[in-house]
Amino acid sequence: MSDTENRNARKLRTGVVVSLSGQKTISVEIRERKPHPKYGKMMTSTKKLHVHDEEGTAGLGDTVTVMETRPLSKTKRWRLVEVVERAK
Q1: Cα gap 29→46, rounded to integer Å
Q2: Is the Cβ–Cβ distance between 78 and 58 less than 8 Å?
Q3: What is the pTM of this model?
Q4: DSSP helix, strand, coil percent of the chain (3-state; round to 5)
Q5: By C-alpha distance, which of 19, 23, 83 is closest to 50?
Q6: Cα–Cα distance, 33 to 30 (Å, whole number)
Q7: Nearest residue to 17 (alpha-carbon basis) of 64, 56, 66
Q8: Over the stretch 6-58, which tens digit does the pLDDT of each residue have?
Q9: What single-letter DSSP state applies at residue 70?
C-alpha cells in the first residue's frame, strides 16, 4: 500500500440515526464495546456524530454507514454512505 492510498483511507462507521437535526443533517449514535484499559471488563462507549445527508434518505431509527469527510460545517465531519437497514 502506497502513502497516497493509506492517506486517503477514510474511516467508516455504522450506527443508528437518533435525530433528524436539520434539512440535510442527521445525528448518528455509534456504539462500541471495548475492554476497560485496566480492569478488562467490557464497556459500551457511545459517540454521537453529525452527518451530512444530501438527499434526506435516512429516517429515525435506521442503521446507516457513514464516512469521514472534510469539515462541512462547524460540527459536521461525516457524510452518509448508505442506509444499511430501515427502522421497523
Answers
A1: 7
A2: no
A3: 0.83
A4: 5, 50, 45
A5: 19
A6: 10
A7: 64
A8: 667 899 999 999 999 889 999 999 999 999 999 999 999 999 999 999 999 99
A9: S
